[in-house]
C-alpha cells in the first residue's frame, strides 16, 4: 500500500480572500509581522497500488481530473 | 523574512465526510484501489521575524489560537 500527500495551492496572483481574512484575524489577535497568508488544501490518499511510478501517475491524473482546478491552482504530489 | 507552511489535518477517528465524498468520486472516475482519503488544510504564512525559534513559537501559537481546532485537528509547522 502506498500513502501519498497531495497539496493544492492557489497560483500566484489569484486572489485569496480566505487568506486575507486570516491575515487580519492574526493581526487582531496581536501577532505582529504577519505578511502574506495563503490557504490551500491537502489530501492524504491511500492507494492499494504497489508500483510507485504507476501510483504517482494515478495521483497526478486524480489532481487533473478532480482534486485541483488547474486554471487557478497548482498541486504537488509526495509519496510518504 | 521567514516563510512557513502549516498543515492542519483531522485527528484519527474523526469523521471526514468530505474525504469520503472524494473517495467515492475517485472510484466513480475509474480510479481503482483508492483507499482512505482524508482532507486537510494548508496555510502558507510569511513572517517578518528573523529569529527561527521565535517564529516557530509564534506559528504554534497561531495554530492553537486560530488556525486549528485542537480538539479534532492536528497541526504541523515547517519552516521553508
Outline the structure in words:
2 copies of one chain form a homodimer. Chain A has 80 residues and is α+β, with helices and mostly antiparallel strands. In chain A, 35% of the residues lie in helices and 38% in strands. Chain A has helices at 17-28, 52-67, and strands spanning 2-10, 34-47, 73-79. In chain A, strands 2-1-3 form a 3-stranded antiparallel β-sheet. Chain A is elongated, with a radius of gyration of 16 Å. The model of chain A has no long low-confidence stretch (mean pLDDT 96). Chains A and B meet through helix 1, strand 2 and helix 2 of A and helix 1, strand 2 and helix 2 of B. Strand 2 of chain A pairs antiparallel with strand 2 (34-47) of chain B.
**Tally of individual helices of chain A:** 2
Q: Order of helices and strands of chain A, N to C?
A: EHEHE
The helix content of chain A, as a percent range, equals: 25-40%
Major sheet description of chain A: 3 strands, antiparallel
Q: Tell me the strand percentage band of chain A.
A: 35-45%
The gyration radius over C-alpha positions of chain A equals 16 Å
Helix/strand/pairing class of chain A, anyone? Answer: alpha+beta
Largest interface: A-B, 33 and 33 residues
Termini separation of chain A comes to: 11 Å
Tertiary shape of chain A: elongated
Instruction: Give the uncertain stretches of chain A in residue-range form.
Output: none
